[in-house]
Amino acid sequence: MFVSVLIEPGSLDSGKYLVDILSRYGFTKIQRSCWECMKINEHELSNLKKDLDSVTDYYDRIRIYQFPLKGLFVITEMKQKKWRKCQFSAAEPKGTHS
């Protein structure tokens, strides 16, 4: 599964912890606050979220983009120490009528 993680740490310390965790899970830094991994499974992703949650505080923000997860595109966001998830399925193509 492809996973992209965007981090917006609230402090330098939490930023260092987040980067350390992402590196341990095999993520590569793509841009300043964007990390990606193409070789992570659902179980590892669940553990990653727990590890990220353990080093964050109220001021840290994390957004995780996952595809495919059970055929869906999933966006998970942690803001103010609360996780939220949105799931999107592919739109059905509209048939043409003659």
Please explain how this structure is put together:
With 98 residues, this protein is of the alpha+beta class. It is built from two helices and six strands; from the N terminus they run βαββαβββ. Strands 2-3-1-4-5-6 form a six-stranded antiparallel sheet, with helices on one face. It is globular. The model has no long low-confidence stretch (mean pLDDT 90).
What are the salient characteristics of this protein?
40% strand, 2 helices, 98 residues, alpha+beta, 6-stranded antiparallel beta sheet
Radius of gyration: 15 Å
Which structural class do the helices and strands define? Answer: alpha+beta
Q: Calculate the terminal CA-CA distance, rounded to whole Å.
A: 39 Å
Order of helices and strands: EHEEHEEE
- Strand arrangement within the widest β-sheet reads 2-3-1-4-5-6
Largest sheet: 6 strands, antiparallel
- Overall, the morphology is globular
Low-confidence regions: none
Total number of strands: 6
Our count of helices gives: 2
Q: Percent of residues in helical segments?
A: 25-40%
Overall residue-averaged pLDDT value? 90
How much of the sequence is in beta strands?
35-45%
What's the quick description here?
28% of the residues lie in helices and 40% in strands. By secondary structure, it is of the alpha+beta class. Helix 1 (12-24) runs antiparallel to helix 2 (42-55).
Helix and strand topology:
Blueprint: E1 2-8, H1 12-24, E2 28-31, E3 34-37, H2 42-55, E4 61-69, E5 72-79, E6 82-88
Antiparallel strand pairs: 1-3, 1-4, 2-3, 4-5, 5-6
